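Check out a protein:
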Amino acid sequence: MEQSRIDKIMARMKDAGLSQALLSDPYTLRYLTGDRFSPNERFLALLLREGQKPLLFLNKLFLAPHVAEENIVPYVDAERGALKVLPRIDKTQPLGIDKKLAAEFLLELQENGAASAYVNVSPCVDRVRAQKDAGEIAKMERASRLNDEVMLRVKEYVREGVTELELADRLNALYRELGAESLSFPSIVCFGANAADPHHAPDGTRLKPGECVLFDIGGVWDGYCSDMTRTYYFGEPSAHDREVYETVLRANLAAEAIMKPGVRFCDLDAAARKVITDAGWGPNFTHRLGHSIGLQGHEWGDVGEVNTEEVKPGNIFSCEPGIYLAGDTGVRIEDLCLITETGVKILNAAPKGLEVIPVR
C-alpha cells in the first residue's frame, strides 16, 4: 500500500467531513496499491476508514501481490461482494463513494442501509492524484522521451502515397520496438483536410505533396502516459498554411510563457485563445487548451475556459491549441507541461517550429 498517498486522501476526506470512503476506480486502486485490476462485472473496492487499516474487497479470481493479506477481504462468485462491506462500515456516518462505483453496487449498499448518507469523495482523490510525486514525474519524463524518439523516427516513413493507416501501423511498431507497454490512446494520423477533424481516425487516405501531416501520439511507460502532437508539411506549405501554423505556435508559446503555480487554468486557456481569436480564427479553436494526464491519458482537471482552480506544483497537463478549417487543413501543437515550484518544465523535446518533410 502507498500509505503516504492514502494519508493525503484521508486528510482531504477529514476536511470534507468524511471519516470513511469506498474507492472503486481501478486506476485509483493502482495508484494506492501498486497493482493493476480489471474487475469487469465483479465488485472491487478499497475501504478507507479513519483509525483503521485499509481493506481491499477482492474476488478470489484476482491477485494483489503488493497488498498484505491482512488488508484483503476475499470473496467468491457465489457471494455478493458489495455486501461484504456492510459489517465494516459505520452505518451512522456518511460514506464517501467515488464516481466509478457501479450503480448496481451503490444501490445494493443503499438498500441495505450501509451509511447515513452517500457523498461523492472523488474530489478528495482527484486533487491528490493531480499533484504528481517524484516517482510519477520520473516515469512521465521517461514516457515523453520515448514519445520524442517515436516522433523523430516516424518522419522517416513519410512519403508520397503512404496511407494514414500505414503510418499508424508503423507508429504502433515503433512503440513496441522502443519498449512501451502500450499506447496511451489509438494514434491519430491526419493528412491535409483530415486534420480539420481533431479526433480523425486514420484511414486509407494517401499523402500528396503540399499537405500537412498531423501526428497525435502517446505511449505508456511503467504505467504512465505520454501525449504529444506535431504538425508537419510534406513539401512546401502555402502562405495560408504557414499563417495558420505560426498562429497556433504563438498560441502554444503564449500559454506556456505564463505557466507557474497560482495561475488559473482558465487564464492559460485564455492566453492561447486570445492569440487565435486576434488572428481571426477564434471559432476554429473548438476545444479546451488541454487536459491532465498520468496513469490515464485524460485525468481530472482540464485546462479550459471555466476551470478557475489554480495550477499547483506537480500538475501535469497538455497545452494543445489548434485551428481546424473544414475541407481545408488543421494544425495542432501539443506539449506536456509539468508545473514546478517556480514555473514550468516542458516534458517533450521534439522541435515545434514549422518543419517541411522533403517530398520523396
